[in-house]
Design brief:
By secondary structure, this protein is mainly α. Among the domains are: 29 residues; 82 residues, no CATH class; 88 residues. Helices cover 75% and strands 0% of the residues.
C-alpha cells in the first residue's frame, strides 16, 4: 500500500520562492534585531554621558566646596597663629614685668632689712651716705673744676650733716673734717684765678715804647740812600726790635695771642702750655722794645707768672672721705 503524499509533487519554482521568502524575513528579523540593538546601545551611551556629566559636575561642586573649606581652615589657622604670637608677646612682657617686680621687691626687702638692722641705724646710715656724697662732690669740684668756693661749701654742709650723728665712733671723723675744712679756708684765692687775673692786668698795663733813639747830629746820607730811600729801607742786621709799623702791629698781635693762649691754658689746668705760651710772650716783648728797665720789669713779671702754680696743693685733701669709707667698711 503506498503513501498518499508520494503521489503529490511540489513544483521547483514554488520551492525556490518559498526559500527566498523565508530568507527575506530572516534578514528583516536580523536587521530589526541589529537596529534594536543599536538603538539600545545609543540610549545606554546617552545615559552614560549624562551620568558622567552629572558625576563630573557633582565632583566639581564638591571640589569647590572642599577648596572653600580648605581656605576657611587656612584663614582660621592664620588667625590662630596671630593670636598665639600675640599671646606669646603678651606673656613675654608679663614675664619681664614680673621679673622686674621681683627685682624691685628684692631691692625693697634688702633696703628694709638694712634700715631695720640695729647695727646700721637707718637714719645714721642715710646721714653717712649724704656726708660721703658731699665730701666726694667737694673733692671733685676742687680737683677737676678748681672751684675752691664750691669745695668749701660742700665741706661745710658735710660737717653739718655729720654733727647730727651721735655715735661716738665717728668723733675722730668729725675732728678730721674740721681740720680739712680749716685747711681749705686758709688757702685764700685759688692760684689759677690769681694767675688769670695777673695775666689780664699784665695785658692791660704793657708799655712797649719803640726804640726811637737817634744820634743828636744827623749825618749826611749817602747819594744812594738819597736816590733810592723812597724805594728801599735799610737797617742793621743785628737789630731785633721791630721799628716798622707793620712789624710792630704783627708783634703786638703775637704778644696778645700768646697771653690769650696762656689764659686758656690756665683755665684748663695745662701747666706746660701755660709756661710755653708765657715763654713765647717774652720773645715778643724783646721784639717790641729795646733793653731797658721797663723791659726787664715786664720780663720779670712774665717769668713770675710762669712760675705760679695753676692748681691747689692740699696734702690733707680726701683724708676725711678715706677715713669715713674705712669706718663704714669696718662696720660691715
Amino acid at each position: 500500500m503506498s503513501d498518499p503524499t508520494d503521489s503529490v509533487s511540489i513544483p521547483p519554482s514554488t520551492a525556490a520562492a518559498a526559500r527566498r521568502g523565508s530568507s527575506v524575513w530572516l534578514w528583516l528579523v536580523v536587521l530589526a534585531l541589529i537596529g534594536a540593538g543599536g538603538w539600545y546601545g545609543w540610549r545606554q551611551w546617552q545615559q552614560r554621558e549624562v551620568t558622567e556629566r552629572e558625576a563630573a559636575a557633582d565632583g566639581a561642586q564638591r571640589l569647590d566646596a572642599l577648596e572653600q573649606r580648605v581656605d576657611g581652615l587656612r584663614t582660621n589657622q592664620d588667625a590662630q597663629n596671630r593670636r598665639i604670637v600675640q599671646a606669646d608677646s603678651t606673656n613675654r612682657v608679663l614675664r619681664d614685668e614680673l621679673h622686674g617686680i621681683g627685682q624691685r621687691a628684692a631691692l625693697i626687702e634688702d633696703s628694709v632689712s638694712k634700715l631695720a638692722d640695729p647695727n646700721r641705724h637707718g637714719a645714721q646710715a642715710m646721714r653717712l651716705d649724704e656726708t660721703e656724697l658731699l665730701l666726694t662732690l667737694g673733692q671733685q669740684r676742687l680737683q677737676i673744676a678748681g672751684d675752691l668756693e664750691g669745695a668749701r661749701r660742700a665741706y661745710i654742709l658735710a660737717g653739718g650733716v655729720l654733727d647730727g650723728i651721735d655715735d661716738p665712733a665717728y668723733l675722730s671723723l668729725r675732728q678730721t673734717l674740721l681740720q680739712e675744712t680749716a685747711a681749705l679756708k686758709e688757702l685764700g684765692i685759688e692760684p689759677r684765678m690769681q694767675a688769670m687775673a695777673k695775666l689780664d692786668a699784665l695785658a692791660q698795663s704793657l708799655s712797649l715804647p719803640q726804640d726811637t733813639a737817634k744820634p743828636a747830629v744827623a749825618e749826611p746820607a749817602p747819594w744812594w740812600r738819597r736816590a733810592f730811600g723812597t724805594l728801599i729801607e735799610t737797617q742793621p742786621v743785628n737789630r731785633t726790635v721791630a721799628s716798622h709799623p707793620a712789624d710792630r702791629a704783627a708783634a703786638l698781635a703775637g704778644l696778645q695771642l700768646e697771653i690769650s693762649l696762656a689764659r686758656a691754658a690756665a683755665e684748663r689746668h695745662d701747666a706746660d702750655g701755660y709756661k710755653i705760651a708765657l715763654k713765647r710772650a717774652e720773645q715778643w716783648v724783646q721784639r717790641l722794645s729795646a733793653p731797658s728797665p721797663t723791659q726787664d720789669k715786664q720780663l720779670a713779671s712774665l717769668r713770675e707768672l710762669a712760675a705760679m702754680p695753676l692748681s691747689l696743693t692740699v696734702p690733707t685733701l680726701g683724708t676725711t672721705l678715706q677715713q669715713l669709707r674705712q669706718l663704714r667698711t669696718a662696720a660691715h
